[in-house]
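Pasting as-is:
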Amino acid sequence: MEFKCKKAGSECYGLKELVLLSEISQRLIQSKELKHDLSSVLELLVRHLGAERSLLTIFNRKNSKIYIESAYGYSSAQQARGKYKLGEGIIGRVVELSRPVIIEKISKSSLFLNRTQQELTSKDGEELSFVCVPIIEDAKVTGTLSLVRKYNPFITNDEDLNLLSIVGSLVSQVVRSKQERIEEVELLRQKNQELQNQLKGDNPNMNMVGNSAKMKDVYSLINMVAETNSTVLIRGESGIGKELVADAIHYMSKREKKSFIKVNCSALPDSLIESELFGHEKGAFTGADSRRKGRFELADGGTIFLDEIGDIPLSTQVKILRIIQQREFERLGGTETIKVDVRIVAATNRNLEEMIDEGDFREDLFYRINVFPIFIPPLRERRNDIPMLVDHFIDKFNKRNDTQIKRITTSALNMLMVYSWPGNIRELENCIERSCILSTDNVIHSYNLPPSLQTADSTNTRSRGGLTYTVEQVEKQLIREALTSTKGNIAKAAEGLKVTERMLGTRLKKYEIDAWRFKV
């Protein structure tokens, strides 16, 4: 009579363990490839035990995050999604507590995050168990080893833990070596980021392009206020880049690792804005089937950006005033007072002072949000930033659309320089994107620009400036052409223009033209 092992079928489960450990030991001794790839060990583990899948993670102590290093039975997309913070999910807890965890039926466990989006039952619908043990080297956790197998009541927890712990100890030195390499890469990345920040100089955000005197003043204000917790009001016309300033303030602050919640107040209907900002309780109104946290509550500990705050109705302005004053509020339909630690950055393109006179904006709220105002000048007041912005957008769309635009012609740039740009940077960006698409020779010509830029009449620039304005534009163009032909050499440019270096230097200062930008 033949007896079958209830744990593993026809072959003894204990015998399978011994064969498995023997094969892993032999491979570690003989193969150099295992120093780089441990997936073959995981494959042995799965096949010998008749399991579904297995994975090995590495704990990066530099950023307190855990990543999947090797896996068997997981797709590359699933492995890429397997990232955990210290203490997060089962794997995060195993690393944090340095203790193993067993989930007998993962489909019924709230602890199992399923970050990799795997199937929670086997192909034939059977329950799956999840076993995770810490990998320890020199009394420190370097990672975890996990196994997913069909639920088997005949296999005890101790058997699973003992086997995985032994396998973990066999590969612990390799895992430790991988951990050190990952942390070295992370350290280099941090140093590289620090160097990039230093290279930015006064510009706190790489997405903010511009080196004019007015933009340098904006950068200076951002640098001064970012490290504080003060409320900031960003003012300027539509399309000028107020959101980028808010980004810079948050990511340069002490709250950079906390939540950054953005709210476009003008996009929210009056009937829903209070629910969106403050949340609501179940049954607060028709359709409120469950409790919902508002944007202020989600931003607790971080920053909330209220874009177009001038469009908030008066009834909601009262509640925002209370949050700014006392940092507390109640959800819609609730009585519980909720306290939050949140920094408020607001922005508007409207004239709030006029709105106060007309009774559309509360004066006390204005004084609360206007603690540290930052005004961003329109593009027409800092035309010297246009060449730099054009280069930035050309590079951006080359990467996005896989194009090879090399340059913009002088005549096309002239047209951009004299246009009034009512839509500011957003309009310029759309203009360059269109021109990149229309270009057939990897060069942006004047005829690639929108029709509104083709003539002076359509842009309303011929009669506004008069003779002085026109002469200045011609003078600036001659200076730029001279600097372009001499590659930024001021002496040679002055000679070509038949003026003294002093006269040219005076005009460079007057028109805020940087000669070094024309050097190749």
